[in-house]
Amino acid sequence: MDTQTLWVSTSDQQRLCVKTFGERSKPALVLVHGYPDHQEVWEPMIEHLVQHYFVLTYDVRGAGDSSIPKRIRHYALPRLSQDLAEVTEQVLGDKAFHLAAHDWGSIQSWESVTESKFRGRILSFVTISGPCLDHAAFWMRKQYNQNKPKFFKQLTKSWYIAVFQLPFLAPNVWRLFNAERWANILDKLEGQSDLPLNQNIAQDGQYGVGLYRANFIPRLLKPRQRYAVCPVHAIVLTQDNFVSPELIDEVPQWAEQFSRVEVDANHWAVLSQPEHIANLVHKFIQKHNGA
């Protein structure tokens, strides 16, 4: 498998670590990781995707080998969307691409998927356990007025979001973690042992908190109407401990072409069921390849 590591300098002087896998002649697929992960989380899936695609991954700012912003506002969604634009422009040129993302990678990717400048650039989007924050805000308001049990169910899943707003406690708690301790948590969540280790977990967790602090309160207080510019497919993890499957119910009114599939798995299915998730991504893309 042809693998290359590149460095992309952004317009605000960050350096993003980018990796490519496979042959450039194949359709391009960009994968964006979540929190508290970095791009290596995709490697179990990439071995099943690279036969079909030229795969591009990158460490988002503050994660993995990419640089760490100094200010919380540098993690804002528009800036993260610009990172995707600059990475793909510098690595893919004017080639359109498919996009799949997990957790926070999906949250930040929604910002691009609902931006008109990406129309025709992003061919399709697969979202895994990462709702658009604007859509989630509208959903929460609707449930508060119409179905309070659903509203409070999601609140109980999202307790960590409130904790992450604390400026000193949240980042420093991650210093207590190491790869083995984090792996034990994932093994229990996924009901599976020996999942891949994240050797960078303490730093990924500590600095990635900025994603939550820069975006959740502004988006939940002032949600925007955000319409998808490409077909959207949701892989819904029915046992997800952090994101209610019901959140995806909001998406059809914001995506003209929308489909979904349910998987009996917890939040990190990209690690516990990589072949199955990769096959679902591939199956959806085949419907929209070259669209």
What does this structure look like?
- With 291 residues, the protein is α/β, with parallel strands linked by helices.
- It has a single domain (3-288), classed as Alpha/Beta hydrolase fold, catalytic domain (Rossmann fold, 3-Layer(aba) Sandwich), CATH 3.40.50.1820.
- 41% of the residues lie in helices and 17% in strands.
- It is built from 11 helices and 8 strands.
- The protein has helices at 43-49, 77-92, 104-113, 133-146, 148-157, 159-163, 169-173, 179-190, 201-221, 269-272, 274-288; strands spanning 3-9, 15-21, 28-32, 54-58, 97-102, 122-128, 232-237, 258-263.
- Strands 1-2-4-3-5-6-7-8 form an 8-stranded mixed β-sheet, sandwiched between helices.
- Helix 1 (43-49) crosses helix 11.
- The longest helix is centred in the last third of the chain and has 21 residues, at 201-221.
- It starts with a strand and ends with a helix.
- The mean pLDDT is 91.
Q: Tell me the strand percentage band.
A: 15-25%
Count of helical stretches: 11
- Main beta-sheet annotation: 8 strands, mixed
- Spatial shape: globular
Whole-number count of domains:
1
Distance between the termini: 27 Å
CATH topology: Rossmann fold
CATH superfamily: Alpha/Beta hydrolase fold, catalytic domain
Which segments are poorly predicted (pLDDT under 50) over 5 or more consecutive residues?
none
- What is the structural class? alpha/beta
- Structure summary, number of beta strands: 8
What is this structure's SSE topology?
Layout: E1 3-9, E2 15-21, E3 28-32, H1 43-49, E4 54-58, H2 77-92, E5 97-102, H3 104-113, E6 122-128, H4 133-146, H5 148-157, H6 159-163, H7 169-173, H8 179-190, H9 201-221, E7 232-237, E8 258-263, H10 269-272, H11 274-288
Parallel strand pairs: 3-4, 3-5, 5-6, 6-7, 7-8
Antiparallel strand pairs: 1-2, 2-4
Helix pairs in contact: 1-11, 2-3, 4-5, 4-9
